[in-house]
TrEMBL record:
One of its GO terms (molecular function) is transferase activity. Residues 21-435 form the Amidase domain. InterPro entries: Amidase (IPR000120), Amidase_CS (IPR020556), Amidase_dom (IPR023631), AS_sf (IPR036928). The keyword Transferase applies. Keywords: Transferase. This is Aspartyl-tRNA(Asn)/glutamyl-tRNA(Gln) amidotransferase subunit A. Gene3D superfamilies: Amidase signature (AS) domain. It comes from Paralcaligenes ureilyticus. PROSITE patterns: AMIDASES.
C-alpha cells in the first residue's frame, strides 16, 4: 500500500483501482505484517469488504460519497464503533461493544471511507504500554526494537508500515504528534473542538483532541475536510474553516521557539539539527523566520498535569474502586496521581491556563505559525519510566494546553535510521495555514517518501517490566499525605503501587504549589480555550 490517501482517492475516482481491490490489498498486508508490527488489536474483514462492495456499486452508478470514497482506514481503540469492540486496550473494557458509532466515524463513513479495524493504544490512551494489558505493545516499523511513542501507538505503526493509508488518533498532551514523530509520518492535532468527540472515550475534558495520522500533511487535510463541522450533541464542537494548501509561503511569518530546546529541556543533537535545517527550507520557500518566545515549558507542563491527571482520575475513580487489579501498571502509576490534587489545585491550574492563553495573543499577532523541534528520536521499547515523565517537560504540551492546531512531520533520519521530526503550530481555527506550511515543507524535502523496512524481524530484546520500576524511599510525611488522599478517594492498593505513588507524590505536590503561587485570584478559570 504505497499510495497516499490523496493518491488512493484519485485512483478510485478515475476507476484505475476499485474499492474492493484496494480493501483486499490492505487486508492482505495487515495479515502479513500485523503479527510483527502488532498495530491492530481487531481486524474487521467482513465489515470492510461489505463497505467496499457498497462503495464500488455506488461508483458504478456515478455516485461518489465524498473525498475518501473507497479509501480504507483504521481507528484508535478508544473511538466507538457500533457492533465492533471498543476496548480502550484494557482488560476493564475488553468485552465492551458499543451500540452506536462515534460522530467522527459516521462522518468518515459519509465521506466514503472503509473501516478495516481498531488499533492499539496506551491503556485508555494514558500512561504507557504495560505487560498487564490484553494486547502487546506495537513495534516501530523503522526498527522493531524501538517504541512508537504514544498514546496513538497503533495508529502510527499502522500508517508508517503502510498497512492503512490513514488512521484516526487522539491527542491530550501529544499523543498524535509524539508517535507520528517517532515513526516518520504526519500527525495533526486540530484546533480544540474542531472535530466532534462524542463517542470517544474521555481522557481529559480540557485537553482531548481527535485528529488524522497519515503519510503527508496533504493526506491529513483531506481527512480533516471529512471530519470537521458543527454538531449539536457535543458542546465543544466548533465550526470548520476551509482548507487550501495551494498557496506558496511568500510573506509568511514564522516564529522559531528556540528556548524550548536551548533552555527548557535537553534534545538530541540530531533533533536540533533537523529543525535548524527546516528553517533553511522554509526561508528558501519564501518565509521569514525569527526567534519567538513563549512561556517556559514547565509552566505548560504544570497546568497540563494538574488538570489532566485530575480529570482522568475523575473519569475512572469508580472503576478503580471496584476493579483496580484489572488495570495495567503503567496506567495506574500515572492516573492514581490524580488523587493527590484537590479542587484548589484544579481551579488554580485553570486560572494559570487562562494566563497562558492570554500570553499567546501577542504571538498570534506577530507570527502566522510557530516552529519547534520535534521530540527526541524513538527510544528502545521498555525504556519508559513513570518518574521520568514527571521530571521532564514535553515540547508538545504547550499546544495541548492552548488548544492551538499543531502538526508533526518527518524532518529526516538519524544515522541509525530512526525518524526525526519538526512541529508546526498556528492560530486557533487557522488549521489550513499549519497544513499549508507542512505541505510546502514536505514537498521541498521529500522525507515522507522513504519507506521503513517493515519485514525486518525483531531481536530478542527483553522489555523490562513496568511493575518492577525501582523507586526510592519517601518520607513518612509524604506517605501520610498519600494515604489521606487514597482514603478520601475510597481506594486501596498493594504495597508496590503505594510505593510508586509515593515516589511521584513530591513532583505532584510541587506542581500544585507552583500553580497556587502563580495564579491571579481575579482571573476567571479558562473553562473554554478561546474568547
Amino acid at each position: 500500500m504505497e499510495c497516499t490517501v490523496f493518491e488512493a482517492a484519485d485512483l478510485i475516482r478515475k476507476r484505475v483501482v476499485s474499492p474492493v481491490e484496494l480493501t483486499r490489498s490492505v487486508l492482505e498486508r495487515i495479515t502479513d505484517l500485523n503479527p510483527t508490527i502488532r498495530a491492530f488489536i481487531t481486524v474487521t474483514p467482513e465489515h470492510a469488504l461489505a463497505q467496499a462492495t457498497s462503495a464500488e456499486r455506488e461508483l458504478m452508478l456515478g455516485r461518489v460519497r465524498g473525498p475518501l470514497h473507497g479509501v480504507p482506514f483504521a481507528l484508535k481503540d478508544i473511538i466507538d464503533t457500533a457492533g465492533i469492540p471498543t476496548t480502550g486496550h484494557s482488560k476493564v473494557g475488553m468485552h465492551r461493544v458499543p451500540s452506536a458509532d462515534a460522530i467522527l466515524v459516521r462522518r468518515l463513513y459519509d465521506a466514503g471511507a472503509i473501516l478495516v479495524g481498531k488499533l492499539a493504544t496506551f491503556e485508555y490512551a494514558h500512561g504507557g504500554h504495560s505487560e498487564h494489558t490484553p494486547w502487546p505493545e506495537p513495534r516501530n516499523p523503522w526498527h522493531l526494537d524501538y517504541a512508537t511513542g504514544g498514546s496513538s501507538s497503533g495508529s502510527a505503526a499502522a500508517v508508517a508500515s503502510r498497512m492503512v493509508p490513514f488512521a484516526i488518533g487522539t491527542d491530550t498532551g501529544g499523543s498524535i504528534r509524539i508517535p507520528a514523530g517517532a515513526t516518520g509520518i504526519a500527525g495533526f492535532k486540530p484546533t480544540y473542538g474542531l472535530i466532534n468527540r462524542t463517542g470517544v472515550m474521555t481522557n481529559s475534558f480540557t485537553f482531548d483532541h481527535c485528529g488524522p495520522m497519515a503519510r503527508t500533511a496533504e493526506d491529513c487535510a483531506l481527512v480533516l475536510q471529512a471530519l470537521t463541522g458543527h454538531n449539536e450533541p457535543h458542546p465543544d464542537s466548533a465550526h470548520s474553516s476551509g482548507l487550501d494548501l495551494s498557496q506558496d509561503l511568500r510573506g509568511l511569518r514564522v516564529g522559531l521557539v528556540r528556548h524550548f530546546w536551548e533552555d527548557d529541556l535537553q534534545l538530541d543533537c540530531a533533533a536540533v539539527a533537523a529543525v535548524e535545517s527546516a528553517v533553511e527550507v522554509l526561508v528558501k520557500c519564501g518565509a521569514s523566520v525569527e526567534t519567538a518566545r513563549m512561556a517556559p515549558l514547565r509552566e505548560y507542563n504544570d497546568v497540563k498535569w494538574v488538570i489532566g491527571e485530575s480529570e482522568i482520575f475523575a473519569v475512572h475513580v469508580e472503576q478503580l474502586q471496584a476493579r483496580m487489579t484489572e488495570y495495567g501498571s503503567a496506567f495506574l502509576s500515572k492516573t492514581l496521581a490524580g488523587s493527590l490534587f484537590d479542587a484548589v489545585d484544579y481551579i488554580c491550574a485553570q486560572r494559570e491556563r487562562r494566563r497562558l492563553l492570554d500570553q499567546m495573543k501577542h504571538l498570534y499577532e506577530r507570527y502566522d505559525v510557530l516552529l519547534t523541534a520535534g521530540g527526541n528520536p524513538a527510544r528502545l521499547r521498555g525504556e519508559y519510566r513513570v518518574l521520568n515523565a514527571w521530571k521532564v517537560s514535553s515540547i508538545y504540551t504547550p499546544f495541548s494546553v492552548t488548544g492551538a492546531p499543531a502538526i508533526s512531520v518527518c524532518a529526516g533520519f538519524t544515522t541509525e535510521g530512526l525518524p526525526l521530526s519538526i512541529q508546526i503550530a498556528g492560530r486557533p481555527f487557522e488549521d489550513w495555514r499549519v497544513l499549508r506550511v507542512a505541505h510546502a515543507y514536505e514537498k521541498a524535502t521529500g522525507w515522507y517518501k522513504r519507506t521503513p523496512p517493515a519485514d525486518t524481524l525483531p531481536t530478542s530484546l527483553v522489555v523490562p517490566s513496568t511493575t518492577n520500576e525501582e523507586v526510592g524511599e519517601t518520607s513518612s510525611s509524604v506517605q501520610q499525605l498519600v494515604r489521606h488522599s487514597l482514603e478520601r478517594a475510597g481506594l486501596q492498593m498493594d504495597e508496590v503501587l503505594f510505593r510508586q505513588l509515593c515516589a511521584v507524590a513530591p513532583f505532584a505536590f510541587a506542581m500544585g504549589e507552583r500553580i497556587r503561587r502563580s495564579h491571579h485570584r481575579g482571573v476567571d478559570p479558562a473553562l473554554f480555550p478561546f474568547d
